[in-house]
Amino acid sequence: MQEQRYHGLRFAFLAASAAMMAWWWAGARPFAVAVEGSSMAPTLLEGDVLIATVPAGRMLAAGSLVVVEHPARPGYEMVKRVVRAVGPDGIWVEGDNAWSSSDSRSFGPVERHAIRGVVRLRYWPLARAGRL
Question: What is the set of active-site residues?
Answer without folding.
Answer: 39, 80
